[in-house]
Amino acid sequence: MVVAAFLFLPSAFCLLPSALCLLPLTAFQTRSPGNLEVLKAVGSLPPAIVGLFREPIGFKQTAIGDYFVFDRRGHTVYSVDENGAASRKLVQIGAEDGRVIEPSAFDVAANGSFAVADAPNGRERIQLFDATGVRTGGFLLPGRGASRIVLGSLSLNGVGTLTFTGRTLVMSHPESGWLLSEYGLAGTPIRSVGQLRATGHESDRELHVALNAGIPIPDSKGGFYFVFMAGPPAFRKYDADGELVYERAIQGREIDSVVAAIPNRWPRRASGGGEVPLVTPTIRTAAVDPAGRLWISFVVPFTYVYDDDGEKIRTVQFRGAGVVAPSSLSFTTRGRLLVTPGCYEFVPG
C-alpha cells in the first residue's frame, strides 16, 4: 500500500487552495486488495493551532466557514477562523454556568450556536451557547451520571453523545429506558425513540444500560440512525414517526478481532462508593453525509459506509501524517469530511 507524506502548505490554514481541489479524486484516494479505500488528507488545521488541543474529539465547520473544536480533556471549546489564522477559547473549564467541567458531548448547529453536555458535581447538565461563546440557556437532566463506557483514560459519564440542530437536542440516554431522547431548548422532553436492545445482561442494570449507549444521528428525512457503541456492533434506522425501519448487524474482516474480543463477563471497577462494569467500546464515532450515507468508525482504524437501505458499500481507512483512527467525523457544506484527532480534512469521494 502506498502512503503519501502529508503536505503542510505554507498558508496560515493548511487546506489546499480551491484551484488544487480540482485535481482528480484519485490524487487523494487509492484502493488496496480487498476493496479497502485509503483516503489521504488534503489538509488540516495548522500545527501551531492543533498543538493547543489536549484531546480534540469534535471538529465542525459552520455555514459561514468558522471552525469549532471541542477539546474534551482540556474542558474547552475553541473557534478557529475560516483562514486558520487565529483561534479563540469560547468556553473554558469551570463548574459554574457558562463554563464546562467533565464534558462528555458536543455539537454545533449550522449557525454556529452549540451545545455541551457536562457533569458538575456528578449532575448531568446541558448548556447552550451562541457562536461567540455566550451562554444562552441550559438545563439539568434527572439523576446522576454514571460511567458507561471507558476507552483508555477516557470515561464517558452520563450523556455520551448528542446532536444539536439549533432547535432541538437529541441524546443517547438509555437510563430513561429508551435509546434516544429529543429535548427542546428549555429541557422539555419532546419524544423518546427506540426500545433498548436485548443484551442478556438485563439483571445487571448498569451493564445493560452501557451496552445500549450509542450515537443518535438525525437524517434528512426527519428520522434517526442509532449506532450502538459497545457490545456486538449494530445500528438501527428509525423513521420520522419514531418507528423502526430496520436493524443491521455490522460485520467485516477488518473488525473480526474486535468482535471476537467482546467478553461474556465484563470486569468491574470502583465508582462512587460502588462498582460499575468496565465496558469498552467497539465503535468510536459515526456521521451521516449529505447524501444520507452512514459512516461508522471503529476502535481499530477502519470505517464502514452504508447506504440508505443499510447495505455496506465501502470500507475506508484515513491517512494524514499516518493512519488515523477517527474520534469524530463531520461533513461540511462543501461536502468535505473533517476528522479528529489531527483536525484533518478529506475528500470523501
What does this entry look like structurally?
- There is one protein chain.
- The chain has a single domain, classed as Lipocalin (Beta Barrel).
- The protein has 349 residues and is mainly β.
- The protein has three helices and 32 strands.
Q: Hey, roughly how much beta strand do the residues contain?
A: 35-45%
Main beta sheet, described? Answer: 7 strands, mixed
Distance between the ends: 19 Å
CATH class membership? Mainly Beta
Write the layout of secondary structure elements.
Layout: E1 14-15, E2 29-32, E3 36-40, E4 43-44, H1 47-50, E5 56-61, E6 67-71, E7 76-80, E8 87-91, E9 105-108, E10 114-118, E11 123-129, E12 135-144, E13 147-151, E14 154-157, E15 162-164, E16 168-172, E17 178-184, E18 189-195, H2 205-210, E19 214-218, E20 224-228, E21 234-238, E22 244-249, H3 256-260, E23 268-271, E24 274-277, E25 283-288, E26 294-298, E27 303-306, E28 312-319, E29 323-324, E30 328-331, E31 337-340, E32 344-346
Parallel strand pairs: 3-28
Antiparallel strand pairs: 1-4, 2-3, 4-32, 5-6, 6-7, 7-8, 9-10, 10-11, 11-12, 13-14, 15-16, 16-17, 17-18, 19-20, 20-21, 21-22, 23-24, 25-26, 26-27, 27-28, 28-29, 30-31, 31-32
